[in-house]
Design brief:
Blueprint (H helix, E strand, L loop, with lengths): L3 H13 L1 H33 L4 H49 L3 H6 L2 H43 L1 H48 L1 H6 L3 H53 L5 H42 L8 H7 L6 E9 L18 E9 L3 E6 L5 H8 L7 E6 L2 E2 L5 H7 E4 L10 H6 L6 H10 L3 H5 L18 H13 L5 E5 L7 H15 L3 E5 L11 E6 L2 E6 L1 H7 L2 H31 L1
Parallel strand pairs: 3-8, 3-9, 6-7, 7-8
Antiparallel strand pairs: 1-2, 1-4, 4-5, 9-10
The protein binds adenosine-5'-triphosphate and magnesium ion.
The site of magnesium ion (MG) has 4 residues, from helix 11.
């Protein structure tokens, strides 16, 4: 069955809030019944009380009318309250399911799906389902009940007049559906233009510094103007089409009322139709047009909901990671011996949009063999794109479709729980992400750790001066992705995050690339102490960072080309030596420049 997962979840949510839904149905039915009954009171008042000059009876009818009006307004309020409550609960649950599924998706899903697209699944698709399953379904049923109820009443009072106006109503009904169906693709275009526009806003605001740097504001305006022009033409067309539709409905309405008045009055003369019945018809005809307009616009909501169900189902069909947190937590894990990569090859998964382009069709790692023994500090070096980060991504089980084997203590990685392996390893990534929260919360990340633990760690690592600079210390609130602090400060926070958790295996992937030399030396001197009995993988472009490593792995184009201690590798006179000599040349150049710079400073100070 199509879209089965989403349908199951929707049914489950509806079942959970069934009582609320049922209550809003009952209230809606009562409201509709009163809505049908009130014009009958007016009819009776005209035909019976007014024609017989029965003032007492008329007063009673007026009283009943007022009471019903009062009840109707309370029921209308209650109906809105119940429908909205159900709607919000439905939406909240649905969004929670989609969000939770997205968070648990495999890493490759995030490689091939832009964040904006995933957010749209939660926000706009969730919203369009709420709209359909709450207000839309309830109002469709209410409109159908109202239409049939009114037709039955009309038939009871004048079958002839009913048969006369029924074809007009049926024609309007089909006209409305035909109209909505024909304009539906047009609204789709408008929605696409809008989403392109939002995309532009987001990209250009995010990339404002690049626009500034290259003086390219005009390029942004040009792109936005093109979308604006398309939007303007389509919006105008839409409004015109809408105006034609609503005008046609009004013409139909006027024709129907004229027919009723004309034929009704003729009937009244021959005493077949009462004046009250004619007024009842005129009132109902006016009431008919509301549901007809409603029903046809529900068609659009229905189509949007069908498209949203399909898109949400795509999300629910995205592969998730299997994480059995409680089971893994109970089992625990100890790193006892070694990590072994043998005959390991890996290609990043190909997204279906990239199949023809050949992107990702190359091996990021090819026939890689190495081992890391417990307690070893292993440095990984290599040019940009040589596969260093990929090694760590595989070890952390971010990707699992590799060829060959990765074993931790003789156990294949796929047989080790995801939660287990990630609690064994503490990693500082190349790009650190920080949440918009305090520095402290970014370090402890919702754990049992306290501010004191963090302060102690700062002291040991000798970073107090850096944190003293923040206006509120650890309580300083970071902006989105830490945009109000420097890249080096971000890296220091990321290092602290790992340091205070004291993992058994450390991974530092360019963890100090933005930190100045002095602070880096400070951090590594402190880390050396705690890394003494730990296993660590240190990826670095700055070769001084891996000076204290027991072993260095040298990668080139996805292959492990050399490995050994620094001394052994320098003796080989191969790839590492070349990297090393280049690095030394750069270092010397920097030193000389610094020297000249410092001399100049001294000179100017003199
Ligand atoms: N998510 C991804 N999807 C597709 N290909 C990727 C992805 N991440 C990396 N690659 C590709 O895999 C290869 C190895 O990338 P990796 O990130 O491991 O390099 P690296 O050695 O860490 O480079 P750098 O020093 O720049 O960090 C590169 O060719 C890269 O383009
Ligand atoms: Mg990398």
């Amino acid at each position: 069955m199509k879209n089965q997962k989403t349908k199951k979840i929707i049914l489950f949510i509806i079942k959970n809030h069934f009582f609320l839904l049922l209550s809003s149905f009952i209230v809606m039915l009562l409201t509709t019944a009163i809505g049908i009954y009130m014009p009958i009171i007016v009819k009776d008042a005209i035909d019976i009380n007014i024609s017989m000059k029965d003032t007492l009876g008329l007063a009673k009818k007026a009283e009943l009318f007022l009471v019903l009006l009062f009840i109707l307004s309370i029921l209308t309020y209650l109906s809105v309250y119940l429908t909205e409550t159900f709607g919000q609960k439905f939406l909240f649950d649905l969004k929670r399911y989609i969000f939770s599924h997205i968070l648990h998706c495999k890493m490759k899903i995030f490689d091939s799906n832009p964040v904006g697209k995933l957010i749209a699944r939660i926000e706009s698709d969730g919203e369009s389902l709420r709209e359909f399953f709450t207000s839309s379904v309830i109002s469709i049923i209410s409109d159908i009940v109202l239409c049939f109820g009114m037709i039955l009443v009309l038939f009871k009072f004048s079958p002839l007049l009913t048969l006369l106006i029924l074809p007009v109503i049926v024609i309007i009904f089909f006209f409305s559906f035909w109209f909505q169906r024909s304009v539906a693709p047009f609204w789709v275009i408008l929605r696409k233009i809008n989403s392109t526009l939002y995309g532009y806003y987001s990209d250009f605001i995010k990339g404002h510094d690049i626009l500034r740097l290259f003086n390219k504001f005009s390029w942004a305006f040009h792109k936005i103007n093109l979308s604006f022009n398309k939007k303007f033409i389509n919006e105008l067309r839409g409004e015109l089409i809408d105006a034609i539709y609503y005008n046609s409905l009004q013409i139909f309405e006027a024709i129907s009322i004229s027919v009723v008045l004309w034929v009704g009055l003729a009937g009244n003369i021959s005493s077949k139709v009462s004046i009250g019945t004619i007024i009842l018809f005129a009132t109902y005809i006016k009431q008919f047009f509301g549901p007809i307009k409603n029903l046809s616009s529900q068609f659009q909501i229905f189509q949007r909901a069908i498209a949203s169900i399909e898109r949400i189902d795509d999300v629910f069909n995205m592969e998730t990671e299997e994480i059995n947190e409680s089971e893994d937590r109970e089992k625990g894990i100890q790193f006892k011996d070694r990590i072994v990569f043998s005959q390991l090859s890996f290609k990043y998964p190909i997204h279906k949009d990239d199949e023809d382009t050949g992107i990702n069709n190359i091996y990021a790692l090819k026939d890689v063999n190495f081992e890391i023994n417990k307690g070893e500090k292993v440095g990984i070096v290599g040019k940009t794109g040589s596969g260093k980060t990929t090694i760590t991504a595989l070890l952390l089980k971010f990707y699992d479709e590799y060829e060959g084997s990765i074993k931790v203590d003789d156990k294949e990685l796929c047989d080790i729980g995801t939660y287990q392996i990630r609690s064994l390893i503490g990693a500082v990534f190349q790009d650190t992400f920080l949440f918009p929260d305090t520095i402290l919360n970014n370090i402890i990340l919702d754990s049992q750790l306290t501010e004191n633990d963090v302060l102690k760690a700062i002291d040991i690592l000798g970073l107090k001066a850096i944190f003293d600079r923040f206006p509120a210390g650890l309580q300083t609130v970071l902006k989105d992705d830490g945009s109000n602090i420097s890249s080096g400060e971000k890296q220091i926070i990321a290092i602290l995050r790992i340091y205070i958790r004291d993992p058994q295996i450390f991974i530092f992937d360019e963890a100090t690339s933005s930190i100045d030399n002095n602070t880096e030396t400070l951090i590594y001197d402190a880390l050396k102490k705690i890394l003494k009995d730990k296993t660590a993988i240190i990826i670095a472009h700055r070769l001084s960072t891996i000076d204290f490593c027991d072993k260095i792995l040298c990668f080139h184009e996805g292959k492990l080309v050399e490995s050994g201690t620094k001394q052994q590798l320098l003796l080989i006179n191969g790839y590492f030596k070349k990297l090393y000599m280049n690095y030394k040349r750069e270092e010397k150049f920097e030193e000389q420049n610094n020297f000249v710079y410092n001399e100049r400073i001294i000179e100017t100070q003199d």
